[in-house]
Amino acid sequence: MFYKIAEDKLYTQNLEGLEHKGYHEGFVYLSSEVERGSPFKAVRKIPEAIAEEEEAHLRELKRDKLELCNRAFDIAINALLEQIPQSELLSWNTQEAEARAFLSSEEEEDAPMLAQLSHARGIPLKPLAQKVIEKSDAYKMASGKLIGQRQNYEKAIEQAQSQEELEQIQIIYA
Hints:
It is a single chain. By secondary structure, the chain is an alpha+beta fold. It has helices at residues 46-79, 86-89, 92-105, 112-121, 125-159, 163-168, and strands at residues 2-6, 9-13, 18-24, 27-32. It is 59% helix and 13% strand. Strands 1-2 form a two-stranded antiparallel sheet. The chain is rod-shaped and about 75 Å long.
């Protein structure tokens, strides 16, 4: 296979249909039937052309691997929340803040939303606040682990120097 540049673009072609015109100072000169009579524009040092092509290919593979990593992360993180309606998720920060405030003061007015939840569910406010904190902390631990794994995979992908190194990165969230 020969590499050539034409109109500032890198092309690769096999030997069929190309006439090798020689070497000069590390350059390869090529022409074909179509190009006869036109000046040679197809010139570049072969090692540089190969390196550029390989770097572009590796960048594309890294982009694809990172996309896979992020999709797998979304699936894993969403699995933690799959049974919870989005509208309830929006109240989590309020529930946690109120639960922490109530457990510090034991004053119902520090937890108006949780007070409503406890009345609606028919359970005392204190055990409800404790359960909210327990679930919030468990989610933080689980999501923190997944986020750390994703960031570790991202770093490994960025640092990979070859396709073989990228293929060795197994993306598994647990």
